[in-house]
Task: structure prediction
Amino acid sequence: MSAVSGKYNWSYLTGDWVISTPAISNGSIYVGSWDGKIYSLESKSGAVNWKFMTGGAVDSSPTVSNGVVYVGSFDGNVYALNASTGTVALDEFSSGVIWKYKTDNMVMLSSPAISNGVVYVGSYDGNVYALKASDGKRVWNYTTGYAVVSSPAVSGGVVYVGSEDDNVYALNASNGEKIWNYTTGGMIHVSSPAVDGNLVYVGSFDKNVYALNASDGSLVWNYTTDGVVVSSPAVADNVVYVGSYDHNVYALDAKNGALDWKYTTGSDVASSPAIADGIVYVGSGDGHVYALNASSSNAIWNYTVGAVVASSPAIAGNVLYIGSYDGEFYALNASSGIFLWRYQTGDMVVSSPAVAGGVVYVGSYDHLVYAFGSPTQETYTVSFSESGLPFGTSWSVTLNNQTQTSTLDVVSFTLSNGDYYFVVETPKGYSASPASGTLAVESEDIERQFTFTPIVEPTPIFAVLALVIVVFAATALLVIILVKRR
Result:
């Protein structure tokens, strides 16, 4: 069973809206809430591993790297939290903090990007910050002319980011020096740059989609829509896909910006497209989810939900997951659009879902984090090796009602966590040590060694008696002969 089933797994109640997209790492999910807390929840049960209180709402999506959770807050801080221990210390205000760095305004929506041991993030104070991942020391900051809400993209030693001062910036990742900036005709809000090859793609409030030379910032092309572009571009197979508030989804030639096609929905398209297997998936303010042929714009299917779809879809295992302002969370067959299941939350679903291990996770304005599906069962290798048998001798082990036979020195099984009984079937003429027993599989591979010993057959009792009689008779005869000779 997987997330396809729609099985309600668990939910966890936070203290306010959950807009942040969950991050998943090593059996835990990490998510922020407008209650000011960052939560670590056990992915299988929803049990709280820890929670950490910041001083403001958290709508930035966390980034997890090398056992550390990096996230921003409306209190102006960028936090680095121990992913394992969280609040294992004195209180939820100070425990678990590896470091925090104070900016001069909110860290809003901009999610941290990490590259080569440095954390890059934008702030409402107009700065882009580069902080050392290990201790939070400022490596550099670059001041733009207004708030930075767009999430940075790092590629080839360069940080690309948009600002509400209407500019796209390329900054040297090592020292923060400006390599170039390009001024658009409107602010760059939540449209985050997409970097593909030597081109940077971004949308602007001036209604344009831009392609800029990644090296020098020169304009390669721009395409003018009839509405604000807040959707982040997606690039696949030399085509740029993006939505606009003019109700259209656009497919533009990545090299020259020529219009390949556009598809008109019934309202604003704020959702960022997702592309899989030659299909473009996107939501619209008209209450529909669309699946469009990536090559031709033909609608493969569309599905009507109850309200605006602003979150971006997630596709996994031929299933599309998406939330809506009607409070419903939907699962649709990605190929056909056939309804699979839905779940009614208590308020709008703006959070984009995350899928891992057969479970889909999503937040809602009803203050809850939800998990649907059944976790994929982890399996481990149990190996038995032998010594003492001549090469090519067949031997067997039965474990969990499975029998493996080999003429080599190792047999292996694949099992999930649990306690198991095993029996060794020994070749004729040998004994095994141990011959049977139990073992516990506990989230790691196991190796066991058997020793085979040849069996020495005991001499029958009648043979022993006969031998004694023969020896006795021979001895007596020898004595008689010796006596006669004297």
